[in-house]
Design goal:
- This is FtsX-like permease family protein.
- InterPro entries: ABC3_permease_C (IPR003838).
- Keywords: Cell membrane, Membrane, Transmembrane, Transmembrane helix.
- Residues 395-514 form the ABC3 transporter permease C-terminal domain.
- It is found in: Cell membrane.
- With 521 residues, this protein is α+β, with helices and mostly antiparallel strands.
- The chain folds into three domains: 2-60 and 379-519, no CATH class; 113-221, no CATH class; 230-321.
- The protein contains 16 helices and 13 strands.
- It has helices at 7-19, 25-62, 81-94, 163-168, 213-221, 238-246, 251-259, 289-305, 346-358, 371-416, 418-426, 431-468, 473-478, 484-505, 507-510, 514-519, and strands at 68-72, 100-106, 113-116, 123-124, 128-131, 159-161, 180-185, 190-198, 209-212, 230-236, 262-269, 272-279, 335-340.
- The protein has a seven-stranded mixed β-sheet with strand order 4-3-7-8-6-9-5. A three-stranded antiparallel β-sheet has the order 1-13-2.
- Helix 2 runs antiparallel to helix 10.
- The longest helix has 46 residues, at 371-416.
- The protein is rod-shaped.
Length: 521
């Protein structure tokens, strides 16, 4: 076939001149515009759809809550250390390395925890949950009031409450939150619990507040009125310390101490001099914390009546004297949170954990508590795939219509070019060369249309992504996706279809005998 030789460049120049001559220019521009519109729509629609999917998936991915599945039941502590280790071993054996971020056991707070309302007239029982220091749950729940983020509750003594808890206790949601809340256990005296922060949105798993494991154990063991065999008072003035050392206390004070069966000593610390009071007798008969405070108030009154200086800090009893230092978190827990490194692993994690738990507990207890999160992620991915499929079919449909339009236009132009084909045949051009000329015209049209459409689609896509995500620079970079390989494959397909379309449209004209073609001039 001679066009593959030296005459091919000549045919290409001839095709370009034929397409852009004055009588054919408008048709050529219309065809190129049609091809460019199809390519631009395909690049733009698919790129923005994929970009939106990637941005949303990344947002879900950045939130540990969306990568978590929770298992357990509140009525019993099913999540023992051995069972959690069994789950961890099964997951790491079945999934790739790094697929599991961690397993974090937790429990709900005891049912006898009662919290005083804001006016102090009634009680409520909000539900809390413990959290381990390494658990990243609170990263998903920013705090309000501009407080620093509490990402891990370890040595911090206090709780992080939800807006629901403050509303339940009668606090105004528009007002600044209190510094502490009052906890009562077993209808005894209250214990002040520091409020470290308030989340902007509700906590998961129907929890009203979050408390660190160590502090929860301490609150469980704190007795608001413990029995104490010995107590160190707050700082006392030098005159009080000297009178106690010299045995020159006022008679009423000595009588009160003897009646309460207390032995008094003085201890000098960096904070000042303190009275050390020891109960003489069976420790079980020793005063409780409230009785100790009442006794200190009575002793202060007797000292004042005797002309001694006041001791305003006498009743400041260090908490370490009566708060248990043996607070140990639960060994067995009610629940466990399985956190994946990627949301794509959630369905497989759910299957593995269900199978593992079903071997040792009732199958109905092996259902993840936040099944909705996993279902939402899977549903979102499925909807995105369906949208991409619809866009693909729509693009193919538009491309088919554009191709038919191209063939119709070429057929009409071919009818006008029959005399020209006849003249070319008369001067010696073969039918094969005319076929090559037709294909080259289609290739030129397709190449120009693809180039214009791809440039327009990519440019508009990047502009749209930057405009829509202008407040989130990282999202704007992911908001539009285009693949050079996919674009190259699509361009090759479009160019081939254009070449085939022009070859098919000009087929009848090329086969007309030169004499008949020249008669039509």
């Amino acid at each position: 076939m001679r066009p593959s030789g030296p005459r091919l460049p000549y045919l290409a120049r001839f095709a370009a001149c034929d397409l852009f001559e004055r009588t054919s220019l408008r048709i050529t521009v219309a065809v190129i515009t049609t091809i460019a519109a199809v390519v631009a729509f395909s690049v733009l629609a698919r790129g923005l759809a994929l970009g939106a999917h990637r941005v949303n998936v990344q947002r879900l991915q950045d939130d540990p809550l969306n990568r978590s599945l929770w298992y357990g039941v509140r009525s019993s502590r099913l999540m023992t250390g051995g069972r959690i280790a069994e789950i961890d071993e099964a997951l790491r054996a079945a999934l790739p390395a790094g697929a599991i971020e961690g397993l974090y056991p937790y429990s709900k707070t005891p049912d006898d925890w009662e919290w005083l309302t804001a006016d102090g007239t009634s009680i409520e029982r909000p539900v809390g949950r413990t959290i381990r220091p390494e658990d990243r749950l609170l990263e998903s729940f920013p705090l309000r009031e501009g407080r620093p983020p509490i990402l891990r509750l370890d040595d911090d003594e206090g709780i992080v409450a939800s807006p629901k808890m403050l509303e339940l206790l009668g606090y105004d949601p528009e007002s600044p939150p209190p510094e502490s809340l009052s906890l009562r256990r077993g209808r005894r005296d209250t214990v002040p619990v520091p409020l470290l922060g308030v989340t902007e949105k509700p906590l998961p798993d129907y929890a009203d507040f979050v408390v660190g494991e160590r502090y929860e154990a301490k609150l469980r063991q704190i007795d608001p009125d413990p029995v104490l065999g010995q107590l160190r008072s707050g700082p006392v003035p030098p005159d009080w310390a000297a009178a106690a050392r010299e045995g020159s206390l006022p008679p009423n004070v000595s009588e009160t101490l003897d009646k309460a069966r207390l032995f008094l000593e003085v201890e000098d610390l960096s904070s000042g001099s303190h009275w050390n009071l020891t109960f003489i007798g069976d420790v079980s008969e020793a005063p409780g914390l409230r009785a100790w405070r009442d006794l200190l108030v009575a002793l202060a009154g007797e000292m004042l009546r005797a002309g001694m200086p006041p001791a305003p800090r006498l009743t400041e009893i260090p908490e370490g004297q009566y708060a248990s230092e043996e607070a140990v978190p639960w060994e067995d827990h009610q629940f466990v949170a399985v956190v994946a490194a990627d949301i794509e692993y959630l369905p497989e994690i759910e299957r593995i954990v269900n199978e593992t738990l079903a071997r040792s507990i009732r199958p109905e207890l092996a259902v993840p508590l936040n099944q909705g999160v996993s279902d939402e992620v899977i549903k979102f991915s499925r909807q995105t795939r369906e949208a991409l499929n619809i866009l693909t079919y729509l693009s193919l449909g538009i491309a088919l219509v554009a191709m038919l339009n191209l063939m119709v236009v070429e057929w009409l132009r071919a009818e006008r070019k029959i005399p020209e084909w006849g003249l070319l045949k008369a001067v010696g051009m073969t039918e094969a060369e005319l076929a090559a000329l037709s294909v080259l015209e289609g290739v030129v049209l397709g190449t120009l249309g693809v180039a214009a459409g791809a440039a327009f689609g990519i440019g508009v896509g990047r502009w749209a992504s930057a405009s829509y995500y202008r407040d989130r620079p990282l999202d704007s970079e992911m908001g539009f996706i285009w693949s050079p390989l996919l674009l190259l494959a699509m361009s090759g397909l479009v160019v081939c279809l254009c070449g085939f379309g022009t070859w098919l449209a000009n087929r009848t004209s090329r086969r007309s005998p030169p004499c008949e073609s020249l008669k039509m001039r």
